[in-house]
Amino acid sequence: MKIKIAITFVVLTVHQALFHLEGLSRAHVIAQELLSSEKAYVEMLQHLHLDFHGAVMRALDEIDQEGKDTLAREELRRGLSELPAIRDLHQGILEELGERLLHWEGQQKVADVFLAREQEFDHHAAHILQFDRYLSLLSENSLHSPRLAAAVREFEQSQQGGGQNVKHRLLRVVQRLFQYQVLLTDYLNNLCPDSAEYDNTQGALTLISKVTDHANDSMEQGENLQKLVHIEHSVRGQGDLLQPGREFLKEGTLMKVTGKSRRPRHLFLMSDVLLYTYPQKDGKYRLKNTLSVASMKVSRPVMEKVPYALKIETSQSCLTLSASSCAERDEWHSCLSRALPEDYKAQALAAFHHSVEIRERLGVSLGERPPTLVPVTHVMMCMNCGCDFSLTLRRHHCHACGKIVCRNCSRNKYPLKYLKDRMAKVCDGCYGELKKRGGDVPGLTRERPVSMSFPLSSPRFSSSAFSSVFHGINPSTFKKQKKVPSALTEVAASGEGSAISGYLSRCKKGKRHWKKLWFVIKGKVLYTYMASEDTVAMESMPLLGFTIAPEKEEGSSEVGPIFHLYHKKTLFYSFKAEDTNSAQRWIEAMEDASVL
User: What is the DSSP code (8-state) at residue 551?
Assistant: First the structure.
């Protein structure tokens, strides 16, 4: 027994020693990163001091000789005077960090480099507090002084300016403080809590946090800048995120859908790009792709085995993601849609609704591009007239818009450009639009003329003539139109704006004869459809006053996939979901809809 305890103690001691060594090694790597990034930062400050600060000060001195509005220029001069002091502060930090890393084995510490300069960080605080004000003064004075405007423009166009505006370059001065925060936090997490360096690093973080709090409180771009720095540090494989005009919008985890597999993917949405990453064990993320928002198409497809699906399409890739709830999916869809430029929003709307007017505005005509075909299994009734499909009344795709229609609504053909002007079947609506645009196509007629150049008694009359006469009759003119109550046409099966939608199996009054149908809850009403793309509901039922009772599995207290719908103790329907989680979502949605 004593031997086992001794062995266990030795193993634990070895593990602790290895963990300590690994932490020290990682702390050394972070210290090196701190040094290399400080070197690049000081070089940027040097260029800013020589090429921007010096040129602006000389221009202000020349304007002073004119003696006009000296108070505003004096305020601008005071604001810019912090830049040389900030450069000197970081030049000292760089030199001392270089010395520490050169003799790392002898003194493994860097936190005191910051603590020794606590008073000098006041220059950063003063710079931040005046940041928005002196940018405004710089802009105003540039309007009235060609010399100052030329100095600013020359710096922005220079190699040192990097082709970026002055505001962006000055934001990088503040950005460094947020970088200190994330680097020192990582450094702290790899130190022994009992060490003096651990306490010193906590003190250094407190010092830096006081200054960054000023940025969040007083700068217009403070919080956005902090978030971009944190994302940049959290995502491996991601370069510099600070770009002119870029704003953070949203982040969150969705499940990537590939066949039957589901994998977590973490998304960071900015005003111009979407970072598509996957989580790693250490709490950080690895970048898989950077998607441009400008060329993005976002939709909420109805997929039988993918609840709350969100589809993101670009010219290079197509992602199908699954959210945890309808609200989360809709929130992402809304946020992505708002980020799209106006012309791309219009283009996406045209693709979704097949809007002829918007297609014209974008220069995309009907029939020029292949449509997105609606899956045959998702439709049980004609998307044009609403008649039910059967063994005899079959489904037909319109090759212009992609809808599924009946034969009576798709008796026309028209040459389509994306098919190299080959004839293809189109629905009545698209045929009318195509004919209006392109006119009649020679040889294209719906009715065949009846030739009467032979006697009525001729055998040809009984075959060819009768055939052409009956072909010229449009069966849709004799077809009895299906009368549909207006309440059933108010909500489509796609479930736009619904509380929940999806497939459930249903049976009436406990008969256990299950039938799989598509259901949508919207406005406290349960709508029933044959399939997920139907435009007309089979029936609708207000849920107010109903009660929902889950059915527990045999020999268990847990709720199963079956639940029942009652009204005053009378069983109306029983429902069966694919799994217990799906059943729970439906139960909650029905309970919400059953009360005012």
Answer: E
HSE-CB at 418 with a 13 A cutoff on CA atoms is: 11
* CA-to-CA dists, residue 72 to 56, 135, 137, 361, angstroms: 14, 12, 7, 48
Helix H segments across 65-165? 70-80, 82-102, 111-115, 122-129, 131-144, 146-157
Indicate the DSSP class of residue 381: B
The dotted CATH code for 248-361 is: 2.30.29.30
- The stretches of 190-325 forming alpha helices (DSSP H) are 196-218, 222-234
Please state the φ and ψ torsions of residue 398, each to the nearest 5 degrees.
-85, 125
Q: Is 15 exposed, middle or buried (CB count within 10 Å of its CB: 0-12, 13-18, 19+)?
A: exposed
DSSP 8-state class, residue 278 = E
Q: Locate 452 and state its tokens.
A: 């009467």
Closest CA to 374 of 396, 346, 359: 396
Average pLDDT over residues 438-445: 61
CA 433 to chain centre: 34
Return the CATH superfamily for domain 25-236: Dbl homology (DH) domain (1.20.900.10)
Of the candidates 227, 234, 223, the residue with the CA atom closest to the CA atom of residue 185: 234
Question: What is the domain partition of the chain in residue ranges?
Answer: 25-236, 248-361, 365-440, 491-593
**Mean predicted lDDT score pLDDT of the chain:** 79
Q: For 365-440, CATH number?
A: 3.30.40.10
Same fold, 25-236 and 491-593: no
**Helix axes 82-102 and 122-129, enclosed angle (nearest 10):** 140
CB neighbourhood size of 588 (10 A): 14
Q: What string of H, E and C letters represents the secondary structure of 417-472?
A: HHHCCEEEEECHHHHHHHHHHHCCCCCCCCCCCCCCCCCCCCHHHHHHHHHHHHHC
Tokens of 233: 């540090």
Rounded to whole angstroms, the Cα distance separating 471 from 421 reads 25
Rounded CA separation 135/152 (Å): 12
Strand partners for 312? 298, 319
Domain boundaries 491-593, CATH class: mainly beta
The separation between CA 523 and the C-alpha centre of its own chain, rounded to angstroms, equals: 27
Q: Tens of pLDDT along 249-282? A: 999 999 998 888 889 999 999 988 999 999 998 8
pTM equals 0.57
Beta bridge partners of 565: 548, 573
Instruction: Count Cβ atoms below 10 Å from residue 125 Cβ, excluding itself.
Output: 18
Q: Beta-strand (E) ranges in 372-421?
A: 396-397, 404-405, 412-416
- 542 close to 525: Cβ distance less than 8 angstroms: yes
Q: Which of 341, 337, 334, 366 is nearest to 351 (CA)?
A: 366
pLDDT in tens, 566-593: 988 888 899 998 888 888 889 988 998 8
pLDDT of the residue at 476: 45
- Ranking 114-118, 490-494, 539-543 by mean pLDDT, the lowest is 490-494
